[in-house]
Design goal:
41% helix, five-stranded parallel β-sheet, alpha/beta, globular, homooctamer, 18% strand
């Protein structure tokens, strides 16, 4: 959005000729900065409540860095997911203060103004140790969007008492993200224990017939606990955005 | 739960020797009434915020009716989904006041005390006319659980202006359920237009390579709009329960 | 086997020129009675511990009845699975004393000599009411093979306390057959609670992306409870034979 | 085709004993130059309107180079797709003037006579930055076949206004190639906005359940915008050839 | 679009204050008539060159008839595909002059003004007799949209001379629709013989491992003839719309 | 082929101006009789050694009967596969002497001149009674093409001695067709016992995860017995044609 | 479990105020030691008859080593499966006496007290040399759990006499684990030869359409030998645990 | 087989007390040499007409070499397929005279006595250059088994005249092996042109939706040319063994 247009719009808001809601809507529909290989949407924050996030997979380190610098220049904060090590190194060099998390494969730069806080806690539960990278991607994302995050680790259903003994934590969460590979059974049990929304994340962890997470995905889609919703395999990011939408609604 | 035990528990609550939360928790873990072919969980309302719902598929009309009568006898209200016509007829005979919806394939009996109302409106959007039965199952379920329901029908992405012209309704909803078959593309567009949680429901509507909804399911799981979550194919019921969890959180 | 050959063999056993084990082995490898459309293996009992069982699907009522009469004529008892209603009627006419079970879709005729009893109880657990036909096929089969059978019905993981409250029954079973559709998560939980062998049976019960039991099958193959083994979708018969092998070993 | 036969044919055309169309048809059915590992079709230009294109995948650099030299020797121009870096280096050495494009993985040598120009513009639209290699393969191919090419980049449906603001470009294109991974929803929206032919190209970009482009492929095959046609996953080349056929028809 | 608004717009066009292109664009983005179960897009003809077509599958006869009557009332003509026999009967009763085609499963009512004619002939080729219903759906659709249609029937590749002997017809077509089940190989051969655009339609005809057309679909997507594009299984309608887009471009 | 042309060609053969092989080749490339819905290839016998066979699935009884009458009128004999009962009745009425086989779903009319006999016996082996319809289709087809046919029924690998006791029959066959559903394991065992060609036919017989024959198909394609080849699921006809090609080579 | 609590419980057992079974049950439900990335279940031995086993895949060498040291410190013995070479080296350094098996990819440390011995022999049969790594994982696991292990190698069904000549070994085994890739047919034959329980393990060995073991998996699930149960692809560990459950029941 | 037993058997043959066929049969069922990791079947030549072939994939170079040396020591000749470069180097060192073919990935050592020659020529046809490795594996195998081999390269159906111009070679072959990736359409065309047996080999060559050869495999299984049989993806070896069985029958 060209600054002059913003100034004009704001002056109209100021003198009452344009209502605030109308101004907000106009801003949120405005076009975006174009690079030869990307169209950056600087006003997504206005429209959706979180800034444009860079999906690092399939982009060269140089492309990632260039897009990141444009976003960072606005002071809106920055989140990059699926950062390859080379891209992470480059971001570390160019963006002072960036937080790199190699387990979650994320790069994060706090915005100048913190995001609005969510209503409650987002509890991230994992079935096994091998599910941690996906859970950590969810945790970094949820925190970046202003949510309070708690974790419950390695409480898969084959040892059901590990989960049941944590009943208090389960029932206090505002939203639950349940991350599981292999049989993907954990969300069904969790979904039956709580009233809050449960988002299931299948992971690609497992032996042969897990088919890179397909087994867990199907399990979760067929959950006998009503009201469990599902995101894509290994998509910790998507689960956290959904949780944040709920936690800010 | 044996009435005497409830009386005793309540007297403990009354005299302060047992906290309310503790009593609630005990009640919600209590076992259930057993039929030869079913174990009815009369306290699910306490634990999950909605009564046991009968999944009618794969059960004989007689089984459906018998379970339904047990639940109805408690006055908690009753919801049956995927009711075959024969089972619907039987329910109509035995349960005075039951509301049968042949499009949604549901039977509903209002509880003696209405459920707690949700915070906002659940907006149910369909891509095409053929998606209506699934959307209607969601609508009946959401309403049964105390949610205010609105509808937006036949606004698929091939005529994108049909959707865009309804921007106000979209942005005012507390939760959005988006029902689509064929290409399943509608939730991606809706997810990019609103801040609220979006639940996508793939339907089995479509030509050959829709593979009974698999195409739409995969589309939705891969939605480029972050934070869209997905339920099983044709699972309007599950989407509504998830929406109700969010709307009551 | 031609009677004369049996007589000769037995006389050799009688005079000690052939050891009993040797005679048993010869008998168990002997060829079988041929119909134009089937080769009946009358000595399977010797070789495998259970008589030839007729798989009713894909056979005409007349074929089923003719094979059944040949087997029944030997007095070895008879089990037919997947009996279509027409075939069941025909069997009822021609085989006095046959037990028809329409839920299990089986026909059973007790042998003149009861089979050797198994060591312990085979416990058959179902996740939901819709799984009962498969469970009942397993129950009829296991009983026919000399096993003591117990049942635990409608204890799916979405209400985990229904299962946990039955811990005693679980831990006393010699073998457990766990029948579940939809998410197929129940065997993982059961497998983590007991030491005994657990056989998981996926059923074709469920919404769209259950893909006629594929989802439950994959869940069970990927069970995070070690040592759970799996049989084909809806194959209650196979699960019971496996349980009987274990219970007679 | 043996030069003598061509000379004879042309003399017949010259004296009118053979019509031009007949001569063209005969030429276009003539056999081809054989290498031990390939049969080169030098007259494909006559028959199909574009020269033989080398599919570089699965061929050794030496094989690619040898076939390329034979084709280049005719002066018909040359296009190689899916060129591995080693093959690209070899082509760069042996074919002066070859244009190597590492993003598109192509090698191109202009023919001595430029191809006949297409009627309008081929507009290549991408949903995201990660789709660019496939789009670029399409762009190089379309240009090589005489088409005017335009690009619209990173306009995925999650930010639908990015696309709608470019309505003029969309409606002026003669043919549209829409390249998208993940949910593959973009062609459905584009197909609903324009009258011109739309060719959809799914890409293998995405998280787990994109199944290397299968999700996007199915989305596009099930497009609710009538008249969208689809090519293979990541097949930018095929889309461009189809577009060129349309643009030259 | 409310008639008054159209009138006003046209008067603006008349006095030159609004350009024709602008008026056309406004009309084509205008909203649509809403039924409780459908949103009819009466201006699709303006925007896309063909009227709204009713997809009959999954709609009740009454719904089909009601939508059809609304469209017919405008005089724009009408096309319904996948018409169930009951719906066809109803349409026959209510819409005088409707043409019912039971092989193609279509209902067609000519518009008051014929559609603009296409540039050339759309040739519809079938591999076998069993592919005829899909081909006929394509033929009816293409004709309804103003295209001249020709047919070439039962010329599958197992008897390649049947196809080669029709070379003249192949090379004269402006667009070719090739319909094939089983191995789906015909479009590859056709695509190598002609310069014009080729649209491949897989059908669900075949033995077991055709998987209801999946085999033919994959064959066509992998066609070694460059530039063949593909539509969904059995989607004769979609192929015809694509052909008409090309033939009118 | 027009009779006059045949007469002329034969006179040329007679006077030596055309060689016999040349005449044979011309005849075998000649075009064919066209119905509105089919192109009948009357000279397939010359080119391929067997007459045109009608695939009955997906054709109306009237279409089947009309094509059949045209072929029968030539005296070349007739084979129809996958004949629906209605079509069989119609063929029985119109074609005196036709042999209808309801198990094999075939209709057969012997040619005026018997086909050339094959070199040896085609042995058709089935794993179970439920595989008989497919085996019988193979038997009828092989016999119709002049092959001596033998059968070995219900000798699946779960009772391996049933097969081993028939070693002599196995080793004397010229070609073996092995028909099996469920696990599809029989061809692997047979392939290891004989030197002759083995053709495996998967059938759609089995429980859930047989996926309508997919399991057996994959088993056979992965046979550890080298040199086993495979045809489509339930394709007894194709197996017999392949066997006949071998037996006549 | 805190030592004091165990001491107290045991004193209650000693004085008879708590029954042994009750004490065992309490111990087996007790919570577990928590690391930041894992929850170790030290009492699994009590509950399930074998100690916690570490699944090495997807864990870093450092994580594997740390968990292993905690378990080893208890003296319960240790088994790690799917050990990457780096993790194996680290375990070798830190755990004196650990047995590393590179073929089986396992690390094993014997417990201070040997596990209770099983009743009979677990016989592990492989179809081919390439199946050995999976079979060896099963062998190491079964031995670690106190079972006597025997092996039968490279006896696939394509040379059926290799198997039949070992009839004595087959019939003496208490449990049989049958490991096979490619066609996966071996368990069907073995299952028909013995009375004892048979556990089938598909391996990912094979050509293209084995689909990384899917073909063998489906074969085994569809085994025509009744009572064969199946574990996940390449899951030698799971098969051994199941065998040990049976052998200790 | 122990030499003494062979000597005794042969003396019985010599004096007429044992018929030759009987002796041959006994020899062919004799057991085999056992290594710790393999059971070598030295008499497969007698039983099946070709020596044991080593499948190199999944075996260590040392295992391959050791098995190879055992076989070579008998003088029966040797064929290894899927030889990794390291294994090939080792074989080259240890087996003088071995022929290594890096394109076909084979190692071959001629036997002391050449195999019996086949009746005719095995013609190996490839659709494209990228299919050559599979075709070459077939060629080496067929030649090793005593067959005369011819080749026809790069004659895919997109340029159908390349194939038709080679009609003479096609019609003279005794058996045809047709190797094709991508659409896999070539065998359908070839199968319609010849009377001889046609074996189709799908290859894993192609763009995304070829799914590593699945597309071509399905095409071939659904071939509309009757009597085409199919082997596994990339299985040139299996095709050649099947061809050799046919060519020696």
């Amino acid at each position: 959005m060209i600054p002059e247009r913003i100034r004009h719009l704001l002056s109209q808001v100021a003198d009452g000729s344009v209502a605030i809601d109308t101004a907000l809507e106009r801003l949120s529909l405005d076009p975006i900065e174009s690079l030869p290989f990307a169209s950056i949407d600087h006003h997504r924050t206005l429209r959706q409540g979180f800034p444009e996030v860079i999906f690092g997979a399939g982009k060269s380190p140089e492309q990632v860095a260039e897009i990141a610098q444009r976003i960072a220049a606005r002071g809106d904060g920055l989140l990059v997911t699926r950062v390859a090590p080379e891209a992470a190194d480059l971001l570390g060099e160019r963006l002072p203060g960036v937080e790199l998390n190699s387990l979650a494969r994320t790069a994060y730069l706090a915005p100048s103004v913190p995001p609005s806080p969510g209503k409650g806690t987002v509890l991230i539960i994992t079935a096994g140790t091998s599910d941690l990278p996906v859970a950590e991607e969810a945790a970094v994302t949820a925190a970046a969007m202003g949510n309070c995050v708690a974790r419950l680790t390695d409480v898969g259903v084959a040892g059901i008492h590990r989960l049941l003994s944590r009943h208090a934590e389960l029932s206090q969460a505002a939203v639950l993200i349940v991350v599981a590979g292999m049989d993907g059974a954990l969300p069904s049990v969790v979904g039956g224990l709580v009233r809050a929304p449960v988002i299931a994340v299948p992971t690609s962890v497992g032996y042969g017939a897990s088919f890179q997470g397909l087994a867990a995905l199907l399990t979760m889609l067929n959950s006998c606990a009503a009201g469990v919703t599902v995101v894509n395999i290994d998509n910790g990011f998507g689960a956290a955005v959904a949780a944040s939408r709920i936690n800010h609604s």
